[in-house]
Design brief:
The chain is α/β, with parallel strands linked by helices. It contains seven helices and ten strands. The strands form four sheets. A three-stranded mixed beta sheet has the order 3-5-6, covered by helices on one side. The two termini are 42 Å apart.
């Protein structure tokens, strides 16, 4: 794809006339369109993860059906931005729960055989502080390990309300780590190192001078 748009229904379960018209117009032109529901648990979605994911799924599928009716076979992504409200402040919370929600979204989207885009680089913090690093590391790594195809949010702060060039640089480092995390552990004859283990055990008892090192 060279150009795409994501359009959000009005949770719960509403597609306005303007939104529907925009989705249909884009689909007719062959533009890559993806429904992007952004429900908030406790406010515009059930205040349980399973309930929120269920409603989000219905909103995604409704959008996909509309797109396919207009232009059958047009590629689509499974996008989801379900967030959970902090009942103390009525603000969107961020952290482990967001990571679990994103992982759940990935699993549901893959059930339908679709590529999935979720937030991975996200935090409720307004600045580059400990909260930002802690929340981002979880929200990125957990859905990544669940198999997310796209992790959105590079440079965003305050749950997407703001953006930061500094954070973009930091996120680039985090993304490098996420790629390594997903690469896993290579296991083959060379990486197991049986020969060099034997050599070190029978020789100088360390690996500093070994070509394998």
């Amino acid at each position: 794809k060279t150009f795409s748009i994501s359009l959000s229904p009005i949770s719960p379960l509403r597609f306005s006339d303007a939104l529907t018209a925009a989705m249909m117009a884009a689909a007719r032109k062959g533009i890559f369109v993806s429904p992007l529901p952004c429900p908030t648990g406790g406010a515009t979605a059930p205040f349980t993860i399973a309930g929120g994911l269920s409603q989000q799924n219905a909103e995604v599928l409704a959008g996909i059906v509309l797109i396919q009716l207009v232009n059958p076979g047009l590629p689509v992504e499974y996008n989801g931005r379900l967030a959970m409200m902090d009942p103390k402040t009525a603000m969107v919370s961020s952290g482990i729960i967001d990571a679990i929600v994103a992982a759940g979204t990935v699993q549901i989207g893959h059930y339908y055989g679709l590529p999935v885009d979720v937030y991975g680089f996200s935090s409720a913090s307004h600045m580059a502080d400990i909260q930002m690093g802690f929340e981002r590391s979880h929200i990125a790594s957990i859905p990544a390990l669940a198999g997310a195809d796209i992790l959105s949010g590079i440079g965003e702060i305050e749950c997407g309300v703001g953006g930061s060039y500094t954070q973009m640089v930091s996120d680039n480092e985090l993304a490098t780590g996420i790629h390594r995390l997903r690469a896993g552990i290579k296991v083959d004859k060379d990486s197991l190192g049986m020969e060099v283990i034997t050599e070190a055990a029978n020789g100088n008892q360390n690996y500093l001078d070994k070509k394998h090192t």
